[in-house]
Amino acid sequence: MANKKIIAVVGATGAQGGGLVRAILADPDDGFAARAITRDTGSDKARELARSGAEVIAADIDDEKAVTKALRGAHSAYFVTFFWAHLSPEKEKAEALIFARAAKAAGVKHVIWSTLEDTRKWIPLTDDRMPTLQGKYKVPHYDGKGESDHLFTEHGVPTTFLLTSFYWENLIYFGMGPKRGPDGKLAFTLPMGDKKLPSIASEDIGRCAYGIFKEGAELIGKTIGIAGEHLTGEQMANSLGKALGEPVRYNAIAPETFRGFGFPGADDLGNMFQFNRDFADDYCRARNLGVSRSLNPALQNFGTWLAEHKSRIPLE
Ligand SMILES: NC(=O)c1ccc[n+]([C@@H]2O[C@H](COP(=O)([O-])OP(=O)(O)OC[C@H]3O[C@@H](n4cnc5c(N)ncnc54)[C@H](OP(=O)(O)O)[C@@H]3O)[C@@H](O)[C@H]2O)c1
């Protein structure tokens, strides 16, 4: 441990950070050690990370002193915010500022900031193709992250900006899997028309991030987008049908229909899909599959992910 470069990982008990911690621990000879940051070092997940060989440290990302302390002695850091815990881009922006200030104060040599596009560069607030949300955003959970990119640059923090993609796990945990209709048949709903959506196994985000840390200084200042595949709704429905052993119809709804679903954040996600659909060329181009595979040679495609996870997708 003493001679290893420590990578401090925010969200270590979650999807992105967890994948990164596991990738570091799976590669003990490559000179990196994992420091898992959690609010609760006593949780089952935190204890599991400690048992697997991670150093586990307590910090809440809203507490600048605690974050700075958690970064001391670390060579690198992975920063992610948790929009769906609070639905506030203002909070994400405040947390990004804490990350930038803390990384600077602790002298971290390489940061990865898990970001997304500021969609207002494509759809200004004056554009009424989609509603403006929370007064000043089009896609709040993208815009707050993208708007924060400059904080790292301005604080002189050596940063790689990581553009992530739609997790396939949303089919398991976020109610986005195929649903059985009144006719008893399965339909997969996505407001993407015939456009391709970049998507990924969430575990592969951390593995790609580890690839970025291994490449090191060359990737500082760069924006890197990752995905496991770029797939249309039709292609996803076909793969689901093959994996589940029964036909799955693609139900291509309009983004406004999705916005009307009414659950917290449905309007944000409806706008997100509309942005992904209407600017699919730019959005896919920013997430190069070859680059993703070179960072993470074990990158999964939708078929391989489904083979392992299909039984966990709720179908009702
Ligand atoms: N779902 C998607 O398709 C998708 C795609 C691209 C990007 N994203 C973005 O991914 C982000 C979430 O990342 P994720 O999916 O890896 O999260 P996640 O799996 O929900 O993990 C959240 C973890 O973060 C920790 N955490 C939460 N609040 C914290 C706080 N205040 N201080 C310190 N730790 C805290 C929790 O750990 P403890 O309880 O142990 O502290 C929890 O285990 C969101 O901002 C979302 O916009 C999602």
Quick description:
The protein is an alpha/beta fold. It has helices at 15-25, 44-51, 64-71, 89-106, 140-154, 170-173, 202-215, 233-244, 255-259, 266-278, 280-285, 289-295, 302-309; strands at residues 5-9, 32-38, 55-58, 76-79, 110-115, 159-163, 166-167, 179-180, 186-189, 197-200, 223-225, 229-231, 248-251.
Structural overview:
The chain is α/β, with parallel strands linked by helices and 316 residues long. The protein is built from 13 helices and 13 strands. It has helices at 15-25, 44-51, 64-71, 89-106, 140-154, 170-173, 202-215, 233-244, 255-259, 266-278, 280-285, 289-295, 302-309, and strands at residues 5-9, 32-38, 55-58, 76-79, 110-115, 159-163, 166-167, 179-180, 186-189, 197-200, 223-225, 229-231, 248-251. The strands form three sheets. Strands 3-2-1-4-5-6-11 form a seven-stranded parallel beta sheet, sandwiched between helices. α5 (140-154) links the parallel β5 and β6. The radius of gyration is 19 Å and the shape is globular. It starts with a strand and ends in a 7-residue tail after the last helix. The relative contact order is 0.13. The structure holds NADP nicotinamide-adenine-dinucleotide phosphate. NADP nicotinamide-adenine-dinucleotide phosphate (NAP) is lined by residues 11, 13-17, 38-40, 43, 46, 60-62, 80-85, 141, 164, 166-167, 170.
